[in-house]
Structure formats: structure tokens, C-alpha cells
Amino acid sequence: MTAIAIEAQKLSKIYRSVGALVECDLAIPAGKIFGLLGPNGAGKTTLLRTLLGFLKPTSGKATLRGFDCVTQSVKVRQQVSYLPGEARLYRAMRGQAVLELFSGLQHHGSLKQSLSIAERLELDLSRRVMFMSTGMRQKLAIAIVLGSRAPVVILDEPTANLDPTVRSEVVALIRESRCDERTIVLSSHIFSDIEGSCDEVAILKQGRVVCTADLHELKQLHIVRATTKHSSNLHAQDLKSLNFVEHFRISGQQVELQLSGSPNDWLKWLSTAGLHNIAIDHSGVQALYERFHPPTAAQQSSFISQSPA
Amino acid sequence: MIRLLLKKYINESMLLWLACAVMLVLFCWVRVWIVCQFELQRFESFLEQLKPFEKFSPVPLAQLLTYAGSLAMTFDEPVLILCILVWSIARGSDVVSGEINRGTLELLLSLPISRVRLMALHGMVCVVGLAGLCACVWLGLYLGIQTNSVKETVTPKIELSIPYLPVKIPVQTGQSKTTTVPLRERVDPNLFLPAVVNLFGFGFVVLSFSVFCSSLDRFRWRTIGIVVSTYVIQLLLFLLSKSAEATSFCAGLTFFSCYQPDAIVQLQRVESGSTWALTSAANVLPLGLGPLGVTCVLLTLGSAFYLIAFCVFSRRDLPAPL
Fold this sequence. Notes:
Structural class of chain B: mainly alpha
Distance between the termini of chain A: 27 Å
Oligomer: heterodimer
Strand content of chain A: 25-35%
Number of helices of chain A: 12
Largest sheet of chain A: 6 strands, mixed
Low-confidence stretches of chain B: none
CATH class of the largest domain in chain A: Alpha Beta
Number of strands of chain A: 15
Order of helices and strands of chain B: HHHHHHEEEEHHHH
Number of helices of chain B: 10
Number of domains of chain B: 1
Structural class of chain A: alpha/beta
Mean pLDDT of chain B: 86
Strand content of chain B: 5-15%
Helix content of chain B: 55-70%
Low-confidence stretches of chain A: 300-305
CATH topology of the largest domain in chain A: Rossmann fold
Strand order of the largest sheet of chain A: 6-7-8-3-9-10
């Protein structure tokens, strides 16, 4: 049985009448890279800040490696290396001094490791923070956080403000950081970052965890996009009865199906379903995400969207 | 970790402290030098004209005709007060709302350190810095007293006694001579030590109130605005308490009633041995308190603000950086 590194039970954070986090249940296994996906205001950052003790939960409980996030906040933070969504550093300090300060302050800090990451990210450490670009500051913060040997790393949108080259380098760094049962929690809007690094993903919507999925299993899913001459050819009831149809959307003559299992199981059915212009693709995080957060409101209203389960 | 955090706070505040320290030493020395340039007795007629406003002065105006009394007024000089206020408000407002405003608290508090310890370390640097600034005030006065001289006109005279009458008649026996006397022979610098401690108490109240406001707020500019506004209101209440009998109750509503460095200097001259007394019978200071008594009130008030600030900061939610 996999050990649980982070656990939230009915965790809620209510601001007056607004629920930033609503009865959130989550279990993040140790040694995994766990992605948190959701639009702005879904509760990702609130969840992370509650885990770190920055916010007091309205109700519920959260533990990190067995330590209560409210009553044992210092012990929790001994286990964690955290990158805030918008990391701001001391402006008057030089990059080198910032790394020295934080590697000294962190419980598991390592200046050598931080310097090596900074070098890999081609960061000029002789420059003062105030004269660094936003991307350079982000790189510096990443060097601080990933330089630590803390057993849990929490990264809130680590690749924001980074150019594509550095972004892929950071994703590679995150992948490499998974060692010695290290747990990494990655909150991001960028599907490719999640797909490129995570083992599991949770999708948040309006403060609730609406879905958790294993990305390796997700890769077994296929998306089929096609058109049908007569929308009456496909009936929702028929699709619901097919056990390999995980999810479907029908908009006029446009059809989108999410199919599980081996293609051998459903290719025959597909050839007889009266569909044209068929395009088959691997399902990804985006497809899963769009199941809960359809791309636009207009599309949402025009699609019949349902999961058979 | 503690050493590193202390180093961080010291580095952050060093420039401000040095600027304030240099300003205070220089200002106090110059203030002593200016006092030495005048024969104080010549101000007697001028001070007579200020009699109607004496009630606004913490000490009788006649005090200003003495070197010690005149030097004690240094503690009411705007430059000195400004330096103490700048340090106390700038550093006090920085601890929570300053860090939130800059967005640096998030990364700092992700480290394994409790909020109370963080605030205590910051407070330690601020309080030691404040004590250092107060020591600079005394140093400036000390250097001024040691290095300056005053000119005194001495008239040789004898006193003739009239037999059977309790009357002595002074008789001048020669020309008046102007002599230069080192100020240290007229004023003991240690006389100002209780006043310096009182100044520390004053700064401590402002500092701790700033910390308290900072612990509640998320914008540093707003914290500074609230502290400065409160300071001005307190000052107005103090002036109001002095202006009429009907409004004298306002004295109990302002901490300025306990900031009485010149009265403390006067008290020591009136009542010898009262240097570190908690109470005094001379009724120079409010509520019959002694020099240490008024300072203790300030220190208690400051400690209470710090205590509330600890409670507020350790319980509040930290907003995300803007």
C-alpha cells in the first residue's frame, strides 16, 4: 500500500459566503508528482496555502507526512519546500546572497544544489534582484526551492513567466527531483507541464476536487472526433450503454467521444456507427480538464455533454 | 536559522540606523554647542514674555535659564523626535504589512519558523536599534558637554553684614570679568540618563504600536498612515490637556503624558536621589510617578501592544501577495 504524503479531509475555507475551498478530499501518495489543475479561482492556491498554514481552514483537516497543518505548522514546513505562485524576493539582494540566505534558512537547504540549478538555468547570480527580469526572478526562486532536499516540494505555477526553452528545462528538473520518495505537488494551468511531469492529477472546480486521475491510465484513453450526417444516428442512451465510452459530447453534427480500452474493442463499432471524418487521438489532460471546464460558455451550451458513469 | 534571520533584519535596517545615529549624535552635540553660545541669563526678560504660554511647557520656563534645563529641552526638539519616529515607524511597519506588501512574507513563512519567533527576532533588532539610537542621544550630549565651554561673567564682591540686623549687603570690589568655564563643571551628563531611558520608552510605544498595526494590515503605506495619524491625535490630546482645566482629563488619554524627559531632569535637580525612583513626592511628573515610574508606564504600554501584535499575527490568515 502506498504511503500518503498529503491528505485533506473535508477541508474548507470559506470567506464570508464565498467558498474558496469546499469540503476538499484529497490524498496525495508519497513519491509521486501530483498535478493540480483548475481555472483561476478554482481553489488550487488556497489548498496549497492552507496546507502550509498560511490560511486557517474553516472546517476539515489536512495533514502532511502525518503532521497537522494547523497545529503542527512548523513541523509541516520542515518537510516542505514551497514555491509561491508569484515568488517575490528581496530586491536589494544579489542572486547569490538570496540563494545563500534561503539555503541557510531552509531545513533541508543545500547551497551547492541551488547553485547547480541556477547554473543549469543560466542565471546571472551577480545581479541584484531588482534588476532581474520576471523570468530571472522565477528562475532564482526555482533554484531556491528545488535546491532543497525537503521530502515534499510544492510548486504553485512554477513555469509561469518562463520562455518555452526554460519551461521545458524546469519540467525536466521537476522530473529529476522525484527521488528518494520525494513528493512533488505541482499546480499549473499548462497541460503540457502536467503531462510532461505528473503521475497523477486532480482537477478542481469551484473549490472542490471534481476528479483525480492517473496520467498513465489517462494515456490509455482515446479521443474520437467525427461528424454524423444525421444527429439522430447517435442516441445518448445507446452511447451510455457502451462500456468503452467514457464520455461524449454531441453538438449538431459534431461528435466527440472519449473511449477507453484497446482500440480493438471499439474500432469495429466505430466503423458501423455512421460517423464520417473520423480523427482518433490519444486522450490527454486537456480532454479530461475540458470535461469539467468546457472551453467556452457558448460551446458548453451547444453541446450535450455527459459521462455514462 | 535565527542567526541568519537576525543578520537579514540587521542588514535591512543598518543604513537607516546609521543615518539616524549620525544625525542624533551630531544634532545633540550641535544643540549643546548652541546653548553654550549664549549667556542664559539674558533670556530672562524674553522668557517673562512667554509666561502666558508656560502651561504648555512641561517644566517652568525658569528651568531654561539653567544649563541642565536648557539642555533637557533637546529631548523636545523636532529633529530628535523625528529620528526616533522614523526608526520606530519605518521598522515597526515593516514586520508584517511591509513583507506582505513586498510579497516576501510568503517565501519567508514557508520556512520552518513560527510566526511569533519571526516577529520576536524582528522586534529584537528594532528594540536594540532603538536603544542604540537613544544611547546616541546621550553620547551626543556627553560629547557636547565634554567639549564645550560656557562664558560666565564673574563680578568680585563681598557681602557686608550689618550688626544686629539679618541683612547682608553685596558690595562690588572690582571690575566684572568674563571667564570661560568647561560645561562639564556646570552639568553632569549622567543627569540625562533617566531622560534618555524615558525617550526609549517613548520610542518603544511608537514602535510597538507600529508593529501592532502592521500585524493587522497588508499595506505598509496604510500602516504608516494609521500610526502617524494616531501620533498626531495623541499629540493634540496632550496639547488639549494642557490648554484648559476643563480638558485636562485628556492627559489620561495620551501617552505623551508619560514622555517627560525635561521634567525628569528638573525633578532630579529638585529632589536629589530620585534618579531611578518609581514614585516621587515632588509632583513634577503625573500621578506622583518618579522618572522610572513614567518610563515603566510607557514600557508596559509598549509591551501590551507587542503582546497583542503576537496574538493577531499568529492567528490571522496571510493574504496572497498582490
